[in-house]
Amino acid sequence: MEFGALSRLIVISNRVAPAEGSHSGAQGGLAVALQSALREMGGIWFGWSGGQTDVFTGQVNLQRGDGYTTATVDLEEQDIDEYYNGYANRTLWPLFHYRMDLAEYERGFAGGYQRVNERFADTVRPLIEQDDTVWIQDYHMIPLGQELRRRGCANRIGFFLHTPWPPRRLLATLPEANELVETLFAYDVLGFHTAEWLESFCDFARLEMGADIEEDGDVIRFGGRTVRVIVCPIGIDTAEFRALAASDTAQHTCRQMERSAVGRAMIVGVDRLDYSKGLEERLLGFERFLLEHPEERKELFLLQIAPPSRASVGSYQRIRNTLEGLSGRINGEHADLDWVPIRYVNQGYPRDVLAGVYRASRIGLVTPLRDGMNLVAKEYVAAQDPGDPGVLILSRFAGAAAQMQEAVLVNPYSAEEISDAILTALRMPRDERIARWRALMDGVEREDVMWWRKRFTDELIAAPSLAEVD
Ligand code: G6P
Q: Which residue windows are transmembrane per the record (predicted)?
């Protein structure tokens, strides 16, 4: 069945991008991707406004624009502390990125998370009509599907996780792990970016909870519910990004960057300032290159763009301090009168400017320690000049690596591997750069954000509806 006039898409995620076309560089890749999917499909995008209110009223702010409507609500200070800064970003985010050392387990956070998901359910329920298809995004909202079911919502509801799913034994340390995972059985379809994340989920469901997994592994039964699980890697809006890369702003930025590079090769990294992105390890890998190849060092420099993120959370304040110290030390030790090895920039840029920066750079350095997908890797590829493309160096531990095998793949924990990969990329002949880029670009074009949206919603629509099952 295809979407007809009767079936609207209701997307629900914590962060909602404005309906009127902002291309701010501060947005995560997920918000940008959902914006493209909704522009194509039409419907409602519901979530937190990012704003605060004294008393939660559930009053929805509706805004029409660019092919879809946004519907947002304000939250109370305690909600923001316990739900967003607390359970989402101090408990689940570090745990899901394998950082048990940073994960904080507090009952207050778990309670706030549950309360806010109930508030979201109360608020969005009246907006959902009988034939709508509901698609919930990411770790902030795992229990929302169950809360909607409790409020009589029999629509098809899907859930997509944009982070990794952690190995079973890590997840088992979360005090309410089983209850949380149980809520996922309220959905009809669960989507993950890679087979690795999906397998970890199935492991937990089977071994910790006794769920029953069908032989081909894509249908799981638990507590009288049947859920379909799929691998469905998100892409970028490739056509849009190529157009951005061809825009006047991008071309102007590209020329400006080339001028300021004065013939040196630019290596670029663009990441939210997050400990999962491996920024410390990246700078140390770059320093290793400077030490191991003194003859080459003045031939290049690293531009690291890292807009601050989740600044109320202590681990984010610490990583920011660490990186300031580290970039300062490396520059102090290695810089010369006419050369500074690292340009470290703590602000976001519009996407057309970034496209120009990517195009001007010889190497894209994308080395997260763990990442659900990583769309910067895909945007880097989409921005390149086909006749003279740059080289993508990509962490093996990013979800994107499963699709982007023609990148120079590295273990981001190894300074030596990062250093070797920089040398390989610098010396790579143009023919090889073109061949690798072509193969990468084919994938980025084929499995773009429209493909992702369609693959997931097709699965969701094909799932038997609750009305048929019950
Ligand atoms: C990641 C998450 C998204 C989130 C984004 C930006 O990509 O998977 O859900 O929106 O980071 O983080 P923030 O906390 O600023 O929304």
A: none
Domain boundaries, the chain: 3-235+449-465, 238-446
Angle, helices 279-292 vs 415-427, to 10°: value is: 60
Q: At 65, is the pLDDT very low, low, confident or very high (cuts 50, 70, 90)?
A: confident
Residues in contact with ligand 1 by the CB-under-6-Å rule are 15, 28-31, 138, 162-163, 309-310
The residue-averaged pLDDT of 307-328 equals 98
Give the other-Cβ count within 10 Å of 385's Cβ. Answer: 12
Q: 343 forms bridges with which residues in the sheet?
A: 303
pLDDT of residue 38: 83
List, for residues 100-143, the tens digit of each pLDDT value. Answer: 999 999 999 999 999 999 999 999 999 999 999 999 999 999 99
CA angle 61, 63, 66 (to 5 degrees): 155
Q: Output the CA 362–ligand 1 centroid distance in Å.
A: 28
Token pair for residue 350? Answer: 């519009």
**Do the Cβ atoms of 437 and 443 come closer than 8 Å?**
no
**Which residue minimizes the CA distance to atom 16 of ligand 1?**
15
CB 401 within 8 A of CB 370: no
Asked if residue 233 has pLDDT above 80, the reply is: yes
Local confidence band at 467 (pLDDT 50, 70, 90 cut-offs)? low
What CATH code would you report for 238-446? 3.40.50.2000
The residues carrying an active-site annotation are: 162, 371
